[in-house]
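Give me the fold.
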Amino acid sequence: MKMKLAIAVLLLSTMATIASASRTITVTVSNPTNNERNDVPVVISLKAYGEVRSALVSCNGKEIPCQLDDLDKDDIFDELCFLADIYGKQKKEYSVTLYEEGEPRPYTARVYAEMVLGNSKDKKLKKNQQNNYIEALTARGDAAYTYNIQHHHGVDFESELNGIRIYFDARQTLDLYGKFKKQLELKETQFYTDDDQKARGYGDDVLWVGQTFGLGAFRGWDGNKPTLVEPVKTRTQRIISYGPLRTIVEVIDKGWKADAQKEPIDMTLRYIQYAGHRDTDVEVMFNKDVSNYRFSTGIINVKNSEEFSDKKGLRACWGTDYPSTDTVKWKRETVGLAILIPQKNIVSEESANKDNYAYVVKVNGKQMSYKVTYTSTNETFGYHSASEWFYYLKEWRKEMDKPVTIEVR
């Protein structure tokens, strides 16, 4: 009897050890510059570590919030992300324990994303109480008017510093929300701030985009001008990750006839928004080599705006315009916009016209990436003149050119 009991205890102990199987790795983050950096994204691929169900990140014995992301939606986490605060020239070590069981640890959300079907006909709901939340939506290419399917016309997302929505139509324009305070607001305002929320210091829409690029929309190029993302077989928006440290959303265009003389292509635009950041990462991915295609992107030429370009892929403007055709309710808004494109992807920097500051770009193979960022003079924490904005961008570019180095062992 004692032998059986001992075997049972040993078996249970072995099972518990297997169930709690884990692996610990060390991640070293090094800052090559003299400047302190905060909320620096550290992203670790999990391909080499088997199936990971939960994780714990710590530094000097202190737990650091982290996030696990399933990028291809196959119920297996592909990446781990955490944010590093690091002094100039500092080298910092993080301990990362990966577990084969459990659930991702809960942390306070610092980003937000949502897709909402419009249900404004329900008279019981106030303007900013649309609650038909969805995670993905696909429309056929011949759908009549996809712009009005979603409550705020497309997926939206934010960090504490910014708020962006992407129109669910052939424009796929990034439209902007300006904040007064560093906080998450879109769950409450849903991009349409009411009078009570305005009185409490909430932000609102600060840009009129029309048919322009807005903030860095990615489009075709016909040899003379940008073209919209049409015709397509299907158009999809979906949320890949809700946070708490980064939100990831995708826009997928299947069967896009980007060039009438070439085969249709499938394009995925992935937008990544990190907490603590006003800049947004844009990843452009295709199902085939598109090196012989030409595309376009850029920023809107805000009315009477002042332009800045370093002629190396950083282009910006500062201007003032009405954010809406409803000029009775909405005041004129002053914004600073910017886009940063790798030089290897630039075919030409086009002269400004009444709509855009445009680039013609190429994709070397199947993918490219770039960054967009903006400010609004509503911000109590931001920039309030063209000179301040352009100076910030020059410093921002220096950081982008000298990223932190990440070593995993």
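The longest strand covers residues 246-256.
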